[in-house]
Specification:
Helices cover 71% and strands 0% of the residues. With 409 residues, the chain is mostly helical. The N and C termini lie far apart (61 Å).
């Protein structure tokens, strides 16, 4: 939303010939979100619609320099960072699949913007299936909408540039997050429609103005009805964020085929003490995404709570195999091995957790307990002092250190 605000400001400032201000706003938009680069061709489109291209060459030269500087700075910051392919749902899909899936998603986006029914906070994993054929009903609808948009451009261009700007502006601002130009971390996300929705809202306003001229007596009543419906929808939607439990359960209802939604629901049931329900959702998450380290880790914790220690160990080891840097999985494995009487294995796991996450206070506390049982009180003391440096309010570590002092005295 910040990028959208700065992007709109950039276009308005340029339109009023405040070039320096426009350049600053464009830079702020880029630093807010990479996809804000789409505002540059939108601004260029507005210029051509007013036949101002020649006089604006210098201004766009400045915006081009801003873009180059931003790319250079971004490259220096993210250099060497490798994004795992499993976080990019369409990274390994053929180009035609990415295009077809993007068209399918556009039908969903447009439907939500006109009638926001069935909103969801999660479209990850299997919630939005990929499309591989032109015969998919969503593709047929998308092609019809595209043909209709093209017809509108052809018919209205000489009369008014507004419909063309709105249609192309919507298309351009969606391209960076469409998975067509490059894969991103999700197939669909309502937040990705914030900027393109500006053009939809302007288009609806443009259409409403034309309707008002034709049926002036009903225009105000229609507007009032729309306001009531959308205000009610907003109030109703806000209830989703009442608390984490409500949010997760609502998320699951709107995204039942999402591994993430099932994982989140399982976690909230786990926190609430309903371990059986938590296990059910963790298993469902793993059915959708077998290589889900966090779900394996939490399923292991749930099985440990149920007393199935050997089963829990298997889940923790699988989680560690998939995500060796998941410190909590090493810690939980240590907890379970300790329960099984394997202090040597527990010690190894606690140490690994601390190696990955040096400020893991619980791992330091439990490793200290093993050192106490082995008679190594000095190491135990250092670990508890370390735990309290990390978390001064860590009551268990403080009490253990007091007991150690009592024994020492």
């Amino acid at each position: 939303m910040l990028a959208a605000g700065f992007g709109i400001g950039f276009i308005l400032a340029h339109d009023h010939r405040h070039t320096a201000l426009a350049a600053v706003l464009f830079a702020l938009a880029l630093f807010s979100k990479e996809s804000a680069i789409a505002f540059l061709p939108v601004a260029l489109l507005c210029v051509f619609s007013k036949d101002r291209a020649r006089r604006d060459i210098m201004a766009f030269g400045l915006y081009g320099l801003v873009t180059v500087a931003w790319f250079a700075l971004r490259a220096s910051v993210v250099s060497g960072i490798v994004i795992p392919l499993d976080t990019l749902p369409l990274a390994e899909s053929p180009t035609y699949v990415r295009i077809l899936t993007a068209l399918r998603v556009q039908v969903r986006y447009l439907g939500l913007q006109v009638a926001p029914v069935g909103l969801s906070s999660d479209y990850s994993m299997n919630q939005i299936p990929t499309v591989t054929t032109l015969l998919d009903p969503h593709i047929v609808v998308a092609l019809c909408l595209g043909a209709g948009a093209a017809a509108i451009i052809v018919k209205t261009w000489r009369v008014s540039a507004i419909p063309t700007i709105l249609i192309l502006g919507y298309t351009i601002t969606f391209l960076p997050t469409s998975n067509i130009l490059l894969p991103i971390g999700t197939i669909m996300g309502e937040r990705l429609a914030y900027t393109p929705s500006i053009f939809v809202c302007l288009g609806l306003g443009y259409a409403f103005d034309a309707l008002r001229k034709m049926v002036s007596g009903y225009a105000v009543a229609l507007l009032a009805a729309l306001l009531v419906v959308f205000v009610w929808g907003t109030v109703d939607r806000n209830a989703t964020w009442a608390d984490p439990y409500t949010f997760s359960i609502t998320q699951l209802k709107t995204a039942p085929n999402s591994a993430k939604a099932n994982y989140n629901a399982g976690r909230e049931h786990h926190i609430a003490g309903d371990v059986a329900k938590a296990v059910e959702h963790y298993r469902r998450a793993l059915e959708i995404k077998p290589a889900y380290a966090d779900a394996l880790n939490n399923l292991g914790v749930a099985k440990r709570w149920q007393g199935a220690l050997y089963e829990a160990v298997g889940y923790f080891k699988n989680a560690i195999y998939l995500a060796p840097g998941l410190a909590s999985a090493h810690y939980n494995l240590g907890q379970t091995l300790r329960d099984m009487g394997d202090e040597s294995g527990a010690m190894t796991s606690y140490r690994k957790a601390l190696e990955i996450h040096p400020e893991y206070a619980e791992a330091a506390n439990n490793l200290a307990l093993i050192f106490v049982r082995q008679g190594d009180l000095d190491r135990a003391r250092k670990l508890w002092e370390r735990a309290l440096q990390i978390r001064p309010d860590y009551t268990m570590a403080r009490e253990n250190l007091k007991r150690l002092d009592t024994v020492g005295n």
